[in-house]
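Re-run with default settings, no changes from the original entry. Doing this only to confirm the output is reproducible before filing.
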Amino acid sequence: MNERRWTVRTPVNLDVEVLNQDGELAICKALDIGLGGVFLKINRGEIFPDSSVELIFLLGTSTHRIKHKIKARVVRMSEQGMGLMFRDFDATAFRSLQEVLRYKDVRKILKAR
């Protein structure tokens, strides 16, 4: 398969809620993320190809969760999950994405100790 990414993706294991256009919520895991998009492990049929969604990244512990919302569009589906491209990228979304990426780096440092 020919990948057409314009940014590097980094492996992660983050909880994500996906809110579709009908207001239905699916819970899944982000497997990799970059400035351009994310790959989610999610059951087929919960979200459809080419649909627009809102991703809600859940950072922190179960007792203290911080939510970061970013709009995205499904661009690829596979047996392993789906690839989404971030859209409507404003300053708030960019800061949220920076926090998600920073959180991933902090978790990696803490695990190494």
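The mean pLDDT is 82. The beta strands are 10-19, 25-33, 37-41, 52-60, 65-77, 82-86.
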